[in-house]
Amino acid sequence: MITITITNDFDLYKIANCGQCFRATMVNNYHRFITGQHVLYIRPISETEYEISCTDQEWTDIWGPYFDLHREYSPLRRKRKLHPFLKEAVQCGAGIRVLKQEPWEMVLTFIISQRKSIPAIASAIEMMCQRWGHPIQTPFEIVYTFPTPSDLADVTEDDLRECSLGYRAPYIYHAIQLLLDRPNFLTECTTYRDDKLDTHLQQIKGVGAKVANCIMLFAYGRTKRVPIDTWIEKVINVECNGINPFERLGNAAGIFQQYAFYYMIHRK
DNA sequence: CTCCAGGGTTTGC
DNA sequence: GCAAACCATGGA
Fold it and tell me: How distant is C1' of B5 from CA of A244, in Å?
């Protein structure tokens, strides 16, 4: 274990529980995050100091980008002329970071997410990881990687249904076959403009406007994008009188969306 | 038992 | 083009 200093916005509970990642959890009083082949255990030891389980190198190369640490969030939070509801949301959600996660994981995760509760999403993903991912031995436990398209090459729709995927099983199956057929599908589009990337991603069955926006925001760093789910719908229609408060926010829109989502599911 | 969950696709007008 | 119907499953 080594110690690092983070002076940016950085609240591990909020990062792990704002509906953007579904495999983060607490283990032995550490927050645990997984990305690709990497597992991180991390806990705060002071206002700005954190104990981490990885090397300095891995922190810089993998986890810094993952936690979007190059970006300053506090100037965004102090942005003027915010809608009153967003001011409340920011106050509540300060410390959130929009993670940069694996595109393939985001594709499957948010196809699965449709009409499922957050615990149900996490449960289905964990079943897939334990069944088709690869084990990693850590000091505390065995963690399973998120299965790649190759890991899933021989999986049938019926196999998928056993992970509580229901009617989404054909969507997942199609996405697997698409990636096996076109392995570059999720890398060839990294330089596309937002609207073109949107169209590109919606070629995947089960990926519509909302899921495509989630993939763009959470995997490709497209922070102009605002996924509109049932909660953000309520923000617009109930809290903001039908006027979308995010559209005016440019590159910060997606980040404010995340503050709003966290506020909606945590208040009361 | 009923209702709903970070929606998308298909169908009917 | 648009709204409604339909989709599996788990949890409250």
Answer: 23
Q: Which uninterrupted H or E stretch holds A203?
A: none
- Note the strand C nucleotides within 7 A of protein beta carbons: 7-11
Position A268, amino acid: K
Read off φ and ψ for residue A33, nearest 5 degrees.
-120, 150
- Nearest Cα residue to A246 out of A216, A224, A213: A224
- In angstroms, the CA A156 to CA A173 distance is 7
DSSP character for A141?
A: -
Distance of alpha carbon A95 from alpha carbon A93, whole angstroms = 6
Q: Hey, which residues of A are catalytic here?
A: 210
Place of tokens 């039908």: A242
Which nucleotide lies at the shortest CA–C1' distance from A229?
A: B6
DSSP annotation string for A224-267:
T-----HHHHHIIIIISTT--SSGGGGGGHHHHHHHHHHHHHH-
Spatial distance from the CA of A166 to the C1' of C3 (Å): 25
A165 CA to B8 C1' in angstroms comes to: 14
pLDDT 10s per residue in chain A (268 long)?
A: 999 999 999 999 999 999 999 999 999 999 999 999 999 999 999 999 999 999 999 999 999 999 999 999 999 999 878 999 999 999 999 999 999 999 999 999 999 999 999 999 999 999 999 999 999 999 999 999 999 999 999 999 999 999 999 999 999 999 999 999 999 999 999 999 999 999 999 999 999 999 999 999 999 999 999 999 999 999 999 999 999 999 999 999 999 999 999 999 998 7
Question: In the complex, which nucleotide's C1' lies nearest to the CA atom of residue A168?
Answer: C8
